């Protein structure tokens, strides 16, 4: 079965299981992959219908399945150039005015992948994003870009390589008009402009907000607008600085899933690097996590380093109502190596042979009232708590 057929089948299953909200978002991703304006118009019609009939789920599903069937008849040009779009070799950046220094950093960034950029405050996340975005000149090392076509002007570069900073600028007029303005710079006909913009409005869940002004949108919807504006330009490399700031927990999950799905497009995959303090959420969708410590990072995928060797030690975070001594007693038979209490939660380090389920079993057997626990053995969270 081809990747496309698998995707269509996945969408079909979402509707079959009545996961209609997720199913519809995935259906729209398949629609975007067709690049077909008639399909876009069908999605726009269904979205409009849905906003007028929010409670008629069965008819909504019927309409969606009809679009899905039409999509399945359209040949999709599958993108298959997965060589790195950016390669950074030993890049560094110093500001001169202070002692902070970024790098050396070694990275290889590919389309269709999501890279989570994490690290404590002031460790250089924004600096790295701005260097990759060519907003800041790096001090030393090599930075090579390999876009699909030659970039001749700054305008072309800014279409392919988009950086969205933490604080975005205010705009004037309606959301929809601002999006249409983006495409008008690309010489697209008015009808096609309208269709493409409305399709993007549908995809980013902005249908009910399309006539609103900047001041009328919440921070989350402002971020969605910025994404819509960016995606209309069909970037190859997208750099987002803290896109989750100001979003509630549910909105964070939805936007991350949306971003992952959009970056995984069959027809137009995007390489996405996003910085965030929301470790677990970001790790969940990232193909790779870039952890900056004192401004340094080395892509150690294939090398057996201290970090990879350390992976096997079981590290667990626990929030529970239990005295330290008692917890120590419970964990000692499980080859506890270290128990750290940081005032809020315990972090327990066990021997490599200890399994997470054994820890859960021990806590259960002693009827410990656990509020929260997580195995952080493979999470970059282990660097933050150590
Ligand atoms: N324009 C600048 N001139 C001088 N120093 C700067 C400049 N921008 C950032 N720095 C310094 O570089 C260091 C890294 O900052 P950066 O904003 O890249 O970190 P960050 O990881 O994004 O931090 P945060 O999580 O707080 O956003 C800090 O010490 C900061 O003071």
Overall pLDDT: 90
Order of helices and strands: HHHHEEEHEHEHHHEHEHEEHEHEEHEH
Superfamily at the CATH H level of the largest domain? Answer: P-loop containing nucleotide triphosphate hydrolases
Low-confidence stretches: 301-309
Instruction: State Rg.
Output: 24 Å
Number of distinct beta strands? 13
The CATH topology of the largest domain = Rossmann fold
What shape does the CA trace take? globular
Structural class, by secondary structure, is alpha/beta
* CATH arch. level architecture of the largest domain: 3-Layer(aba) Sandwich
Could you tell me which ligands this complex binds, including any ions or cofactors?
adenosine-5'-triphosphate
Trace the largest sheet across and list its strands.
5-6-7-3-8
Strand content: 15-25%
CATH class call of the largest domain:
Alpha Beta
Short recap of the structure:
GO terms for molecular function: ATP binding; ATP hydrolysis activity. With 386 residues, the chain is of the alpha/beta class.
Task: Note down, in words, how this protein is organized.
The structure is a single chain. The chain is of the alpha/beta class and 386 residues long. The chain folds into three domains: 3-72, no CATH class; 86-183 and 198-298, 3-Layer(aba) Sandwich (Rossmann fold), CATH 3.40.50; 309-385, YebC, transcriptional regulation domain (Alpha-Beta Plaits, 2-Layer Sandwich), CATH 3.30.70.980. The chain contains 15 helices and 13 strands. It has a five-stranded parallel beta sheet, with helices on both faces. Strand 11 (336-341) and strand 12 (346-350) form a beta hairpin. It is globular and about 70 Å long.
């Amino acid at each position: 079965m081809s990747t496309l057929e698998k995707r269509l089948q996945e969408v079909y299953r979402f509707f079959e299981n009545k996961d209609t909200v997720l199913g519809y978002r995935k259906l729209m991703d398949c629609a975007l992959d067709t690049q077909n304006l008639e399909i876009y118009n069908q999605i726009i019609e269904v979205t409009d219908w849905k906003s007028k009939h929010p409670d008629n789920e069965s008819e909504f599903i019927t309409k969606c399945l009809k679009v899905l069937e039409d999509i399945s008849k359209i040949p999709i040009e599958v993108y298959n150039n997965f060589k790195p779009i950016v390669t950074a070799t030993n890049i560094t950046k110093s500001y001169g005015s202070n002692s902070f220094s970024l790098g050396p950093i070694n990275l290889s960034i590919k389309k269709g992948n999501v890279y989570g950029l994490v690290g404590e405050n002031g460790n250089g996340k924004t600096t790295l994003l701005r260097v990759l975005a060519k907003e800041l000149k790096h001090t030393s090392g090599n930075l090579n870009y390999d876009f699909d076509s030659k970039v001749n002007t700054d305008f072309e570069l800014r279409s392919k390589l988009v950086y969205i900073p933490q604080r975005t600028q205010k705009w004037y007029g309606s959301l929809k008009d601002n999006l249409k303005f983006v495409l008008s710079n690309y010489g697209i006909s008015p009808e096609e402009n309208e269709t493409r913009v409305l399709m993007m409005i549908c995809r980013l869940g902005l249908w009910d907000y399309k006539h609103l002004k900047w001041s009328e949108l919440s921070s989350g919807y402002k971020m969605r607008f910025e994404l819509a504006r960016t995606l209309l330009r069909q970037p190859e490399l997208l750099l987002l600085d803290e896109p989750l700031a100001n979003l509630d927990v549910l909105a964070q999950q939805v936007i991350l899933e949306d971003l992952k799905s959009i970056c995984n497009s069959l027809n137009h995959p995007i390489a996405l690097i996003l910085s965030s303090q929301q470790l677990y959420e970001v790790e969940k969708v990232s193909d790779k996590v870039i952890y900056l410590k004192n401004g340094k990072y080395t892509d150690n995928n294939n090398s057996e380093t201290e970090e990879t060797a350390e992976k096997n030690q079981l590290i667990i975070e626990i929030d529970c109502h239990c005295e330290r001594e008692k917890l120590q007693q419970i964990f000692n038979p499980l080859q506890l190596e270290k128990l750290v209490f940081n005032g809020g939660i315990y972090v327990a380090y066990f021997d490599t042979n200890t399994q997470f389920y054994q820890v859960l079993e021990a806590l259960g057997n002693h009827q410990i009232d656990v509020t929260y626990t997580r195995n952080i053995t493979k999470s970059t969270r282990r660097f933050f708590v150590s």
